[in-house]
What does this fold into?
Amino acid sequence: MSLLPVEDAIAAILARVPAPIAETVPLAQANGRVLAQPIIATHNQPPFNASAMDGYAVRAADIAEGKPIALIGTSQAGAGFAGTVGADQCVRIFTGAPVPEGADAIIMQEQASATGDSVVFSDLPRPGRSIRPIGNDFALGAELVKAGVLINPFILALAATANQAELSITRRPSVGVLATGDELVLPGQPLAPDTIVASNTFGLMPLLAPFASTITDFGIARDDRAQLQAALAGAFDAGIDVLVTTGGASVGDHDIVQEILKSLGVELDFWRINMRPGKPLMFGRRGKTLVFGLPGNPVSAMVTASVFIKPALRQWQGLVMPVPSPLRLPLAGPTPPNSPRRHFMRATLLHGLNGTAVLPISETDSGHTSSLAQADMLIVQPENDPGQPIGTLVDCLPLGSF
It folds into this structure.
């Protein structure tokens, strides 16, 4: 069986992702979600000509050095001056306050000398000085943020400014994780001969949680057909949208996950990808549930989840770019020749006086978790690449980003 190219696998996965479903949440609950509908301005901001500083609202044409100007009132935020500024008149004004009718400039208070109801200015302003005109930030009806954008605190501040109490965001899928293998024991338990500590679930759940409405740990299923079938059936019965299994995805006598999944009605779209680490990746569906069968080796599991599952969950939420464009960064160390399989090479990000570069990590073992923990990036090394010298620009995928 030939190995499926990475791009073809991603395309097949994204083709199975359902269209985003919108829901409305209060503004305070929208951080980290994806906009289902654009944010539209319902008013002008500022809604009036506003002062950009503390000072005096004047008519620019009236101001001359040493010339006294009559002080006729005060304008402050929430309590503007109701009258009109006439010839040789001014109004004391504070930051954010409405500029009164007739005034066309603000002179900062440090350039004014007030005596009683008379003010002399040392500055000769031009019309419009230090005034935020109506609609300067945004105008009524303007599209402030497009749909498909990840909401962050700065967008939330904008939405609040636009007087939005709620936002239309996309629904996140429910995700479940099931580890498999006779050899696995939970962290903290004694290690008997021939056992290893189960780590995949503890990495995958926080990796995928930002994209999920709920994320459920379905525990560890042993390499026993009856037990594994019961565990998988229980996960499907829970009604989750995405099921992620780890282990049992290869071709050994004890790798029975694929067999059991098929017996439960899972239609496999593909199995085995032209990449390393992570070749034995399965993907299919059962009804509404997307099923990812990840390799059991922890580096393979985390890399394939980053490369394939995260784009699927991004598209599920309607993000404009579910597959982010790779970063182009120079190498801080050479890369070795590559095999016919695309290599997602662990690397660290270096910041120096000459800019940012990536340093390849030479370790390639798919069970070597300490090297993955040191990595900031995955260098995407093409198939049959001859190896590249220091300074070459290479494609990189950040680890840990949304």
